[in-house]
Amino acid sequence: MERGRRCYAVGVFDNPRSQVIEKLGLLRPVRRPPHWTPEFRGALRSAVLGRLWPQCRCHAAGFTDHNLCCLCLAAAVATHGVNSLDELPREALYAVPVGSLLHRVCSCPAHRRERELWAPDAVKWSQPSQNDVAAFTRALVPSIDYVVPPPAAEETFSWIARPAGGTVRARFYTDVSRLDGPSALLARNGWAFVAVDERGDVVASAHGVPPAWIVDIPGAEAWTLL
To answer: At what angle do helices 38-48 and 2-14 cross, to 10 degrees?
Structure first.
């Protein structure tokens, strides 16, 4: 058993896709709930990598003689008191579902208890559509990064209070903010300044965003001084 586990681990980590898989937070959670065991984490890794071989996949590869769910087939054989699928009544044989991943996860009676314990409501109460197959069988969902508006392509400078003549002698206070991080996809840098004269009156203020090649707060602060 231990030898099999070592071979399994080597196989996973030799796969180039495992570099992405290992970044999944569920595989190395900061908090470890008692039910999220190494067996569950290994099953997730195997599912995401497409290493599961349900009966229909085995049949398509020529490894088996049929593509029916073996658990449902065994239940049908037991129900009809026969010894093999060849002895099943034709209508009973036709009623046995194809052993696909979607059937295994979402509708196989043999896994009803596991679904009641762990499955989301979308699996418990309805059959997912074909668009959901990857999500429910391999924990893969389409990226929605494209819905995030891109950052400004060029730097901006907008006056809030523009001084007469375009210049002013005053004390300048600058500020830089980074919003919606910490990921580079969502994070946006912005700057602002306000100029106060010796009487305490605001004589100038402006705001904007730094150029795209500035990706952190120190860089944005330096840009503000320019």
So the answer is: 40
Contact yes or no for 216/225 (Cβ under 8 A): no
Provide the whole-model pTM: 0.57
Residue 145: phi and psi, rounded to 5, are: -60, -30
**Residue 15 domain-assigned (yes or no):** yes
| Per-residue pLDDT, 66 | 93
How many structural domains compose the chain? 2
User: CB-hemisphere CA count at 13 Å for 135?
Assistant: 13
DSSP character for 127? P
Q: Three-state DSSP class for 189?
A: strand
The verdict on 95 and 166 lying in the same domain is: no
134 and 162 in a common domain: no
Range of the domain at 61: 2-138
Same domain, residue pair 171 and 132: no
Question: Which pair of tokens denotes residue 196?
Answer: 């106060």
The alpha-helical segments, DSSP class H, found in 101-152 are: 101-106, 112-118, 121-124, 133-138
- pLDDT of the residue at 21: 56
Contact predicate 86/73, CB 8 Å: no
Q: Does residue 112 share a domain with residue 44?
A: yes
Low-confidence ranges of the chain (pLDDT < 50): 1-16, 18-19
